[in-house]
Design goal:
Blueprint: E1 4-7, H1 10-22, H2 29-51, E2 64-69, E3 74-79, H3 86-92, H4 99-106, H5 116-126, E4 137-145, E5 154-159, E6 168-174, E7 180-187, H6 197-207, E8 215-223, E9 232-241, H7 258-269, E10 277-283, E11 289-295, E12 311-316, E13 319-322, E14 337-342, H8 351-356, H9 358-380, H10 390-393, H11 398-416, H12 421-427, E15 430-432, E16 435-440, H13 442-447, E17 456-460, H14 464-468, H15 474-478, E18 484-486, H16 491-495, E19 500-501, E20 504-508, H17 522-534, H18 536-545, E21 552-555, E22 564-567, H19 575-583, E23 594-597, H20 602-609, H21 615-631, H22 639-650
Parallel strand pairs: 2-8, 12-14, 17-18, 17-20, 21-23
Antiparallel strand pairs: 1-6, 2-3, 3-7, 4-5, 4-7, 5-6, 8-9, 10-11, 11-14, 12-13, 15-16, 15-18, 19-20, 22-23
Helix pairs in contact: 1-5
Bound molecules: adenosine-5'-triphosphate.
The site of adenosine-5'-triphosphate has 19 residues, from helix 2.
């Protein structure tokens, strides 16, 4: 093949512009990115070689070499991993594979370029990968041969990253004896200090120490100068390993610093923020494995996508097997990132096999328990006592942070993980009528329950304001009974799997007839029974007038200021959930709510005194119903008819 000149995908050209104009503040990350790619390429080869050992040719020891040529002013990162075919070089080094990064870049418009610095920080979140080489290089040459292809089918890829204005790269066919890839950076004028071996070792130590492959550099020696001249460091032909070259998780915990853990997290998660917490354990017993699990500080944008890739990398005896091993973590813990290294699974394990393996089940259970313990610790140290140790104080507010990001997903576990339901229930936090923030645990609530209170009361609504101002809370407010306010979409479904906490039932205040049990005194009960009796005739008339809308009409003691509210039958779906599902396009059976009226309210009294056969009565009954619907965030079936009825009253 002769030389071909090809253009970058439009987003790559934009990304390159961004990289070269805005990533100056943290230039050195380019080395981490390129070494990380080299390490991935070796992992891929090791995995493919499990089935095709011939791919390893005569070089079974995988490694990365970093070398400099001071005369040519180049820095080269070479690996003997999987390599790239010509087509792969064109596809992978000319486009952006990750859809998240691509979308982000394509959204940057021209006038935003002024805030390049800010964007540089943002782009750091997505990982610029290979293209970060252009932070320090004005030209990059990649030479590569895919493992398994003959020496004369290697490729050379060269680009100046668009500096010449063309936004193009060249590819040509070359002969390369060794399999694998070398990336040569022609260093910019202001990046010449990356020719210093000492500097490079420092960067490798900082960012890439945990890479399990050996990273080799040529040894340097002090050479005395000729007479009258100073000495200097000179490069020898001997190569030495400059990193620890053992996978981080295989090292004893005492030898790993928090910085190492954080750096490793960044590499596996592509998250620029430090993790909130991590746990590292070697599990022994009938199933043996090592787990290193992280809880991120921030939720990803696609957190609620239950099909989203899981964040666990599976290794078997330190050989990388697969990313996103979803069988190792339940779906409700999909935000956890980390590594599991098993000693028992076969190296050729497939995703299908993982689903069925007993060892995998044991690992999943073990990982789940670990994550829950980690969360329990965060919860425990969230509000440290004054005399707590410095370490415990450092955890202040971390659980709140976790819960704000991932609480809604954790709740899915109530319906998914029956074995751990009680532990999960203890981790739940809600806003309540005494706290606007999601900080009340079920145990806190129980500890504050009133004398004679027999249930944990809660209400679900679309918004906090909607929950707080719901008419259904009126009697609870009057009696000073705390009610949990639930506003996550998942709450109602999740709560349908949690009927009690520590022996106390959970009761929705919008479901079934209100029964405050011992919290109501005898006089109140008597007054209520009398009212039910007195209102019987008007209830019958209301029922008739609203027969298309309401399942039943009854008097209630739950209201204080409002004339009426809607409730659902004890085991029915709430009107709020039904509305949500309908909005989501599901066909819902038409379940009619119960209209409850307040016998103390003037409007209800007026109805009772009126003539049930009059047109006026029919209109008032409908207004009463529609207003109750509005009060809980719904819309009348026929809004125009509602407006007409209200207007008729106003004039
Ligand atoms: N040393 C290498 N050996 C083989 N293939 C490579 C090498 N470096 C890069 N590639 C290929 O180029 C692709 C693009 O690399 P790039 O670093 O831009 O993205 P990535 O590695 O997929 O993402 P990220 O770096 O954010 O993890 C890689 O997915 C890989 O296929």
């Amino acid at each position: 093949m002769t030389k071909q000149t090809l253009s970058f995908q439009a987003e790559v050209a934009q990304l390159l512009h961004l990289v070269t104009h805005s990533l100056y503040s943290n230039k050195e990350i380019f080395l981490r990115e390129l070494i990380s790619n080299a390490s991935d390429a070796c992992d891929k080869l090791r995995y493919e070689a499990l089935n095709s050992p011939a791919l390893l040719e005569d070089a079974p020891n995988l490694e990365v070499r970093v070398s400099v040529d001071k005369t040519a002013r180049t820095l080269t990162i070479t690996d003997n991993g999987i390599g790239l075919s010509q087509q792969e070089a064109i596809d992978n080094l000319g486009t952006i594979a990750k859809s998240g990064t691509r979308d982000f870049v394509s959204r940057l418009s021209g006038d935003q370029k002024a805030q390049a610095d800010e964007q540089g920080q943002l782009i750091g979140q997505f990982g610029v990968g290979f293209y970060s080489g252009f932070i320090v290089a004005d030209k990059i040459t990649v030479e590569s041969r895919r493992a398994g292809l003959p020496a004369d089918q290697a490729v050379r890829w060269v680009s100046d990253g668009g500096a010449s204005g063309g936004g193009a790269f060249e590819v040509e066919n070359i002969t390369r004896a060794a399999r694998g890839t070398s990336v040569t950076l022609h260093l910019r004028e202001d990046a010449q200090d990356y020719l210093s071996a000492w500097k490079l070792k420092g960067i490798i130590n900082k960012y890439s120490d945990h890479i399990s492959l050996p990273i080799l550099m040529q040894k340097e020696e002090w050479k005395e100068g000729e007479e009258g001249k100073g000495g200097e460091m000179v490069t020898t032909d001997e190569w030495e390993t400059v990193n620890q070259a053992s996978a981080l998780w295989t090292r004893p915990k005492k030898d790993i610093t928090p910085e190492h853990y954080a750096e490793f997290y960044k590499q596996i998660s592509h998250d620029h923020e430090a993790p909130l917490a991590y746990t590292h354990n070697r599990v022994e017993g009938s199933t043996e494995y090592t787990q290193l699990l992280y809880i991120p500080s921030k939720a990803p944008l696609d957190l609620f996508n239950r099909d989203k890739a899981a964040g666990i990398k599976l290794y078997v005896k330190r050989v990388f097997i697969m990313d996103d091993a979803e069988a190792l973590m339940p779906v409700y813990l999909r935000f956890v990132k980390g590594v599991v290294d098993s000693s028992d699974l076969p190296l050729n394990v497939s995703r299908e096999l993982l689903q069925e393996s007993r060892d995998v089940r044991a690992i999943r259970e073990g990982c789940t328990k670990r994550v829950l313990s980690m969360l329990e610790d965060l919860a425990k140290n969230n509000r440290p006592a004054d005399d707590a140790s410095e370490e415990d104080k450092a955890g202040a507010g971390k659980y709140d942070k976790f819960y704000a990001e991932f609480g809604a997903v954790l709740k899915e576990g109530l319906g998914e993980d029956f074995a751990n339901r009680e532990r999960l229930a203890k981790l739940l936090r809600y806003a309540s009528t005494s706290s606007d923030t999601a900080s009340v645990s079920l145990a806190d609530y129980k500890a504050r329950m009133k004398e004679g209170q027999e249930a944990i009361y809660y209400i679900t609504a679309d918004t906090l304001a909607g929950a707080k101002n719901s008419p259904q809370l009126e009697v609870f407010k009057k009696k000073g009974i705390e009610v949990l306010l639930m506003t996550d979409r998942v709450d109602e479904w999740a709560l349908s799997h949690l009927h009690e906490f520590d022996g106390t039932p959970l009761q929705s205040v919008a479901r079934g007839a209100v029964d405050l049990g011992k919290l109501q005194d005898d006089a109140e009960k008597k007054a209520f029974e009398e009212a039910s009796e007195v209102f019987k005739p008007v209830l019958a008339k209301l029922k008739d007038a609203l027969k298309d809308k309401a399942e039943d009409v009854r008097v209630t003691s739950r209201l204080v200021d409002s004339p009426a509210c809607l409730v659902v039958q004890e085991h029915g779906m709430s009107t709020q959930l039904a509305r949500m599902l309908r909005q989501a396009g599901q066909t819902m059976p038409d379940v009619k709510p119960v209209l409850e009226v307040n016998p103390e309210h003037p409007l209800v009294k007026k109805l009772a005194a009126g003539d049930g056969a009059s047109v006026h009565f029919h209109d008032l009954a409908n207004i009463l119903f529609d207003q109750a619907l509005l009060a809980e965030g719904g819309l009348p079936d026929d809004p125009a008819a509602y407006v007409k009825r209200v207007n008729a009253l106003l004039v």
